[in-house]
Amino acid sequence: MRVFEVIKGRRSIRKFEKRLIEKKILHKLVEAGVWAPTGGNSQTWVFIIVTDSDRIRKIKAVSPGILGIPSALVVVCQDKELAYKKGGELGRDVSSIMDVAMASQNIMLQAYDEKIGSCPVLSFYKKGVQTLLNIPEWIVPELLISLGYPAESPEPPKRKFGEVCFFEEYKSANGR
Ligand SMILES: Cc1cc2nc3c(=O)[nH]c(=O)nc-3n(C[C@H](O)[C@H](O)[C@H](O)COP(=O)(O)O)c2cc1C
Predict the structure, then answer these.
(1) Would you say residue 169 lies in a domain?
(2) Which residues are 79's β-sheet partners?
(3) What is the CATH number of the domain that holds 85?
(4) CB of 157 closer than 6 angstroms to any ligand 1 atom
(5) I need a labelling partner for 145 at 20 to 30 A (CA). Which of 50, 158, 170, 171 fits?
(6) Is residue 120 within 6 Å of ligand 1 at its C-beta?
(7) Considering its fold, how many domains does the chain have in total?
(8) pLDDT over 80 at 1, yes or no
(9) Which pLDDT band, with edges at 50, 70 and 90, does 170 fall under?
């Protein structure tokens, strides 16, 4: 598929088939993640792939943002200690979050290309996920990505390209 087609075709999927995702595909998705750019080439993320249905159920219990029953989750974390060592406060507090977002989008686009549905999930209890996955305190889960073969094909929410894109300078349309 062409990149623009993948970008426009990806949807947040919240209903999944029971079918499992092969391990090698899951690895490929995370590999797509690590090819994302990072601030100062810091590469301080940590990705935890969860496929055990019991673990997923427990993570769901502390994550109101996970809808449906995904076959897998990628927990995208940041090693905050390392991010601070490499980039100071800006690295730890700003760049590291952007790096998570960029890697996550790569993962979701690659998933779509593999016919796998995905949904980014920010609404979850970080401490709970750390405890369930044995993650030390300095490695912070920043985003969950639910994955599974889609059991729905939602309409795309409208985009407002004309209202948010300007050439050369900002032009107020409504006095703001
Ligand atoms: C930072 C971020 C956090 C999100 N958190 C959640 C979430 O907790 N639960 C959820 O179902 N969707 C979540 N979403 C998905 C958005 O609702 C979705 O991207 C948006 O409605 C646009 O739909 P689309 O992804 O199909 O284009 C999140 C998206 C982003 C970028």
Answers:
(1) no
(2) 139
(3) 3.40.109.10
(4) yes
(5) 158
(6) yes
(7) 1
(8) no
(9) very high
User: Distances in Å between the alpha carbon of 146 and those of 41, 64, 81?
Assistant: 26, 12, 26
Atom of ligand 1 nearest to the CA of 64: 8
Ligand 1 centroid vs 42 CA: distance in angstroms?
26
Is position 174 within any domain? no
The closest residue, in CA terms, to atom 31 on ligand 1 is 120
With respect to residue 171, please indicate whether it lies within any of the assigned structural domains. no
| C-alpha 168 – ligand 1 centre gap (Å) | 30
31 CB-near residues (< 8 Å, 6+ apart): none
| pLDDT the model gives residue 165 | 93
Asked if 161 and 91 touch (Cβ cutoff 8 Å), the reply is no
What is the reported pTM? 0.97
Range of the domain at 7: 3-164
Nearest-angstrom CA–CA distance, 176 and 169: 14
Q: Which residue's CA is the closest to the ligand 1 atom numbered 29?
A: 120
Contact indicator for 172, 35 with CB cutoff of 8 Å: no
Check pLDDT > 90 for residue 176.
no
With a 6 Å cutoff on the Cβ, whether 131 touches ligand 1 is no
